[in-house]
Design a protein that fits this description.
The protein has a domain at 19-71. The chain contains one helix and five strands. A hairpin with a 6-residue loop joins β3 and β4 (57-61). It has one helix at 2-18, and strands at residues 23-28, 35-41, 46-50, 57-61, 67-71. The chain is globular and about 30 Å long. By secondary structure, it is an alpha+beta fold. It has a five-stranded antiparallel sheet with strand order 1-2-3-4-5, with no helix packed on it. The chain starts with a helix and ends in an 8-residue tail after the last strand. The structure holds zinc ion. Residues 29, 31-32, 34, 36, 51, 53-54, 56 line the site of zinc ion.
Length: 79
């Protein structure tokens, strides 16, 4: 049990240092459905979703889930 817990602890540290810069995930753009990218910026505690096809942009705070910045051509936000 003690050994297992130590290994888990070590793994967590390695993951944390890997995520220090950013983690990129390939997703589908919620606006146009094309291949887009989601970046987790651990240092800023922000999640940034970007689509190069339609210029969709969504930046949310990964702690609160609040939208920091959002831009999507052809979509009305809260109109
Ligand atoms: Zn798009």
């Amino acid at each position: 049990m003690l050994i297992n817990r130590s290994i888990t602890f070590l793994t967590t540290i390695v993951k944390a240092s890997d995520n220090k810069m950013q983690t990129t995930q390939a997703i589908r753009c919620p606006n146009c459905g094309s291949h887009a990218e989601r970046n987790y910026l651990a240092s800023d505690q922000q999640t940034r979703t970007e689509c190069p096809v339609c210029d969709y942009l969504m930046i949310t705070c990964s702690l609160t889930g609040k939208v920091v910045e959002a831009y999507a051509p052809g979509i009305y936000w809260g109109g």
